[in-house]
Amino acid sequence: MEPTLEIYDTTLRDGSQQEGISLTVSDKLRVARLLDDLGVTFIEGGWPGANQKDTEFFQRAQHELDLGAARLVAFGMTRRPNGDTETDAVMGQLLDAGTEHLCIVGKAWDYHVTEALRVDLDEGVRMVADSVQYLRSKDRHVFFDAEHFFDGYRANPGYAMDILAAAHESGAERLVLCDTNGGTLPHEVSRILAEVQAGLPGAQLGVHFHNDTGTAVASSLLAVDAGVRQVQGCLNGYGERTGNADLSILIPDLQLKMGIDAIPEENLPLLSPTAHHLAEIVNIALDPHRPYVGHSAFTHKAGLHTSALARRPDAYEHEPPATVGNTTRMLVSEMAGKASIHSKASELGLDMDDELARRVIERVKDLEHKGYHFEAADGSFELLVRDLTGWEQTYFALESFRVDTIRRADEEVTAEATVKIVVDGERRLSVGEGVGPVHALDQALREALRSRHPVVSDLRLVDYRVRVLDSSDGTSAKVRVLLETANHHESWSTIGVHENVIEASWEALVDGIVVGLLRAERD
Ligand SMILES: [Zn+2]
User: Is residue 318 included in any domain, yes or no?
Assistant: First the structure.
């Protein structure tokens, strides 16, 4: 049997170096479970001893983390210069992590050995050999990360190869060629990799690319094609600077385009939900244009295109989106033809005949002329269609609202809103407080609805964006508000346009809540 490719995720170590990412120990345990469910081979959990959090992670992992097929790996350095492995703190911390697999990093670029470590080149080799031998003697599987390998190989190929050979002969089971500074292009990767394979024919190689030249995935694919055993990266491409090789692209590329098993085939539809779940944990919105897993990865706009797509999806999509757990989306805009209106309506579960479609297109064109933009407002579009069928929302009717912003001498700014509405023939008045006027209005409206429609408590405002539309006709500028509301399992966008930002926000807010109430009835 062919040895299988190993997918090695380093989100919890290298990925956590990304600006803006800070994971708690509990977050790290959640991420490890997610990666395990997805089916990666190895999960690098962190650097025990380097910080308290990673030390605690490995302690808790031993009791709390019941992984399926994935194996946890602890990461660390080789022993300190001119030191002794038995008494080396890092060696001890690696062993204390309690994992069967360890990955140690050593310097493969002579320049770093003499300038950063300040030792002679022979000691550089001994540090690698001693550390690997020692950890192997403690019955651990050892992987060796050759730091700055590609830069080192260009500068002094003999020394870079000596480092690899030392790790190999000492028992390292994978020699991982790292492009630590991320400056190596794919064609150089191919050349250097071929030379390493010729120089060390028995070694099992791995690769670790950073995306500084935008080619981390491309280089990884070439390396896998050339026969490396292990490929390292991060789901969603997290990592310092521009990130590591993005496993959410690499995995489906390997699986769907190259026919190589990267994760168990039945797990591939978990890819998009896992990528989104991870983005939620690290608290960085996932780029909608990200290949395979982004919200817009299978989105279609032009009218002609969507009518053909409705008949023959394979003509316009490189893969069926469901294979990676994503979905086709149709955008509604004045460019749209009847077919895309029909597709959008069926996506929303609405019946539509040709006559209704014609009226919808007319209304969309008219409103887009006034500054609305339904592409990004599927919730408001749904209400527009319902409105044209004669549907009316009967949840409440507005009598009036009022918002005040209060700025005190100590510079604290708060907002207060009063909303008067009629619910089931009964007049209600409620007051809401918030950090800003829209927040206060949202609070007041929900408060007024809560006793009759308790489900409003489950709705959350997740995004609020305002854009000033240009006023080329000399009138006062309009603003467009886009708002995203979510319940426990889905989200929808709504829109408001007005000269007054509060009125535009109110419009979007009301649409957001009405759609939320409709979804609650349907579920
Ligand atoms: Zn790295």
Answer: yes
How many folded domains does the chain comprise? Answer: 2
Measured in Å, residue 112 CA sits from the centre of ligand 1 at 16
CA separation for the pair 508, 379 (Å, rounded):
9
Distance between CA atoms of 501 and 91, rounded to whole angstroms? 60
User: 146: CA distance to ligand 1 center in Å?
Assistant: 10
Task: Please give the Cα distance from 51 to 290 (Å, whole number).
Answer: 32
Whether 379 is covered by a domain: the verdict is no
Q: How far is the CA of 46 from the centre of ligand 1 (A)?
A: 12
| Amino acid 1: pLDDT | 46
Q: List the beta bridge partners of residue 484.
A: 463, 493
User: 231 C-alpha to center of ligand 1: Å?
Assistant: 12
| Spatial distance between the Cα atoms of 6 and 228, rounded to a whole number of angstroms | 9
Q: Give the domain CATH number at 203.
A: 3.20.20.70
Tell me how far the alpha carbon of residue 208 lies from the centroid of ligand 1, in angstroms: 7
Beta bridge partners of 104: 76, 144
Going from the Cα of 451 to the center of ligand 1, the distance in angstroms, rounded, reads: 53
Query: How far, in Å, from the CA of 244 to the mean position of ligand 1?
Result: 7
| CA 176 to ligand 1 centroid distance, Å | 11
CA 245 – ligand 1 centroid, Å: 9
Q: Are 65 and 209 found together in one domain?
A: yes
Interaxial angle between packed helices 378-388 and 501-522, expressed in degrees from 0 to 180 and rounded to the nearest 10: 80
Closest by CA to 496, choosing from 467, 458, 470, 456, is 467
The span from the CA of 167 to the CA of 504, in Å, is 64
Consecutive 10-residue runs of the chain (523 residues): their mean pLDDT? 83 94 93 97 95 94 94 97 94 96 97 91 96 98 98 97 98 98 97 98 97 98 97 97 98 97 95 90 87 90 64 83 88 63 76 84 85 84 90 94 93 94 94 94 95 92 84 72 87 92 96 95 81
226 CA distance to ligand 1 centroid (A)? 21
**CA dist., res. 144 & res. 201, Å (int):** 17
Specify whether 256 is located in the same domain as 303: no
pLDDT at residue 401 in the model: 96
Q: Which domain holds residue 349?
A: 299-372
